[in-house]
Amino acid sequence: MTLAACYRALAALMQYPEDRDAMLVNLDRATEHLLRCNLEPIASSFVDFLGRSSLEEIQEDFVATFDFNPGRAPYLGHHLYRDHGKRSSYLIKLKQEFARYGFVPTGCELPDHLSVLAHFLAHLAETNQDSPRRSLLEQAVLPGLKKLTENQDRSRPHWLPLFEAAHHVMTQDCREDPPCSTRSSS
């Protein structure tokens, strides 16, 4: 599995749940990449939660975790810039980067939603834009992801391992020559 495929799998897992079976497939894809790259796999609490829950239960937990408390929502601009003016500038800069590299997001999420950013990172990986991808990670994604992870409700732990796994992949990707980024799946 390529780095781009891993980013796509993580992006799909961070979106509103529409298909439990697709989530399980994406979980397997992301886990395969993590293990192949000697990174910590997604914690069993998330794996167990998906395995034992119906789609409706997953959706209910997703909404309860992210939609009722903006401090836990996966909008990185909110975590980086509580000020609406600064967040607006961040959103505009992200949209400019999307346009610069020919990325057109699908769906209706704002550009700072972690799933949209993971899709953009996948696009940059597919088009061999290593330097811009690493710069985006270091300046615009990882600082917000760190704050997002710190703001997660420890009493609703299901989604936290997903963010931690994304952090592991993104941190490794920032290295000059990550050992797993260009290998294709076997």
TrEMBL record:
**Source taxonomy:** Bacteria, Pseudomonadati, Thermodesulfobacteriota, Desulfuromonadia, Geobacterales
Q: Which UniProt keywords apply?
A: Nitrate assimilation
Classification via SUPFAM superfamilies = TorD-like
* GO biological process per UniProt: chaperone-mediated protein complex assembly; nitrate assimilation
Q: Which Pfam families match?
A: Nitrate_red_del (PF02613)
The record's section on PANTHER family has:
NITRATE REDUCTASE MOLYBDENUM COFACTOR ASSEMBLY CHAPERONE, NITRATE REDUCTASE MOLYBDENUM COFACTOR ASSEMBLY CHAPERONE NARJ
Q: Specify the superkingdom.
A: Bacteria
Please give the name of this protein. Answer: Molecular chaperone TorD family protein
GO terms of molecular function: metallochaperone activity; unfolded protein binding
